[in-house]
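[agent] plan:
  1. take the single chain provided in the ticket
  2. run structure prediction with default settings
  3. attach structure tokens to the ticket
  4. add a short note for the reviewer (M.T.)
[agent] executing step 1
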Amino acid sequence: MSCPDQPLGRRRVLATATGLVTAALLPATPARAAAAAFTNPVIWQDFADIDIIRVGATYYASASTMHYSPGAPVLRSYDLVNWEIAGHSVPVLDFGTKYDLNGARGYVRGIWASSLAYRPSNATFYWLGQIDFARTYIYTATAVEGPWNRLTTISTPYYDAGLLVDSDDTLYVAYGNTTISVAQLSPDGRNQVRTQQVFTTPSSVGTLEGARFYKINGQYYIFLTRPANGQYILKSSGGPFGPYTMRQVLLDLRGPIAGGGVPHQGGLVQTQSGAWYYMAFVDAYPGGRVPALAPVTWTADGWPVVQLVNGAWGTSYPSPALPAPPRQVTPMIGVDTFDGTRLKPRWEWNHNPDNTKWSVDNGLTLRTATVTNDLYWARNTLTHRIQGPTSTATVQLDFSAMRDGDRAGLALLRDSSAWIGIKRDAGATRVVMVNGLTMDGNWNTTGTGTEVASATTSGSRIWLRASADIRPGAARPGTFSYSTDGTNFTRLGPAFSMGNDWRFFMGYRFALFNHATQALGGAVRVPRFELATP
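[agent] step 2 finished; step 3 output follows
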């Protein structure tokens, strides 16, 4: 994964491209034509820098989350098409106070491209990732739901790493940007034993990063991305330290989302029936980077070939031939009444929360945690990915315990944001629509928002609604409305134009917030949240 601070990183415009370099057309056999099919993207939510593995008959994938906490979600599937969020590999971003919004901020830092692996010898999952170009962290768990615990910290920052558990149980890490290296870890995974440069990217290719590391039929492969329009692979028959030869997998390949980018930076996985698939992500701002799936075949001399449809990554393919799933996965959309006493894994906080200021007890309570007029500095803002191509979030809000100066509501959150919510001042409450919350390219606040519409409100509860069109291309609208009965909604304020620049990396999210501008002590309660598609 590239960063604006890195000179060899993702500097090109993310545009739809056409063309074919190394691929093959998908055979249109009668058997395939009759088979059930899936449609890309398989998940129209923001899950980028994918690493994908199979353990038995279950598939798992990990993704980047940057400054959101908990970090590194683990997705689970039984058929490669339908996915649920099972947990998070990094329970808290305890990498410095900036991830607590304490004197500094961690926007566009934190959990970048990382790796997920499973070690059969001890029946343990491993997550590995570097933080802030300073050091690498490894977390482990015996179940993806957790608990996940930090195993070790390694002083070498393994940039865009891929973790390999070799057939002899040795742990190797492939990593780097343009200069690709391989490290060997100690048998307990706690220390680096050896590291060696194994490949230098030719100048004709440019940048390669986003390593994924595999051993397939006795050969070692490092799967690499040319951001943001290509995928290459290195192959070695001489061992994990090479020598490696390179082949192009795809370049400027037309993707399955109209207006979106080239599928890239994902991982390879083999099904229990022996078939291979590549799950990549497609740049699709303002929604983010969304996963797409395609079958893969192998040449006689051991190189992967993505199967295409009419010279492009298919919008549809025959479904993987797999056994019926043992159960239906948990939908990523729908109603959450915050039952029980824990948040469901679909939720992530903007930076680490103050855990003394929120609770779940058959409803979500958000107590004010920060005194600020800047939402980007407010702790305990709870976020939910937007479902594409269009979706609507509706939240029921009990504001009876708000105090003067408090601001609570539902936002479309990114580096350019807007919200609908309640302002309480001088003992009175109003429902307002605010836009003009902005950051610059260094993620400093440049605008704290302007109230552009309002209406008086009484009582103690209100329903707030935000609708988002996250199809990529031209700037897309978000709209806001409210209701006093949960049935009849009134539009409030103008359409908000969601930005589609890639440099914030994460896509827009729906966000629930409650912060003070005068003094702490107020609270709101959220009995119900619903994410729905048309």
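[agent] step 4 note for reviewer: The CA atoms of residues 434 and 450 lie 5 Å apart.
[agent] ticket updated
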